[in-house]
Please model this.
Amino acid sequence: MTENVNTPHIAPHGAEIAETILLPGDPLRAKFIADTYLQNVVQFNTVRNMFGFTGDYKGSRISVMGTGMGIPSASLYAHELIHSFGVKNLIRIGTCGGLSTNLDLFDIVVASAASTDSNFLHHYKLPGTYAPTASWPLLSAVAKEAKTQNLTLNVGNVLSSDVFYRADPSDAQKWADMGVLAVEMETAGIYSVAAAAGVQALSVFTVSDHLFKGVETTADERQTAFTGMMELVLPVAASL
Ligand code: HPA
Model:
């Protein structure tokens, strides 16, 4: 979209934002992706250092922008990208903490759904409990690409939590007992904002730590795992 629209948090001043956007939490990751994988790059946002870029990947225009951490931050960027800039496909790429004992560091998790301990969903005033869900076209495309690349995906429910440092560590076990695979902090917000607008969203993660196995990754290891996840998601983004 090239119209000269600016919002409180995204000010492209006419620079293009593509219909498909990759959303890492960290704005420097967005810069890394643009520098490493995209050609003919334009930067469309610097507001609050939440860098956003648009460029070419294998003949398709793709954008990439940081979301910050947590549902309030990620969901406001998702809202503005969709409602003011015409974004149609939102793909979060991030890290998660493993809850399932079947998960190991660097495994890839895809959120078919996102449970939450956040109050964000209450603002929709629904007469029941909403289940934030991935878009099947994106999920099925990622599953197909993973098969082509011989990668194993762990597809299931994740917890989008407002809390990183828990007062009661037994909370995490309760989510694990319900079959929730992993914890992160944004997806329930992004999925519900996308669903309310009738657009597509998907979250893909690598496991950066495990809540019960007491293991963590180094920054270098996370970078390598991140590269594998990008090479899974980029061909999908380019095909939309
Ligand atoms: N908790 C919440 N979010 C996360 C974690 C975690 O352990 N790891 C990566 N993102």
In short: The beta strands are 20-24, 39-45, 52-57, 60-65, 89-98, 108-116, 153-160, 182-184, 200-210, 215-216. The helical segments are 27-37, 71-85, 136-148, 170-177, 187-197, 219-239. The longest strand covers residues 200-210.
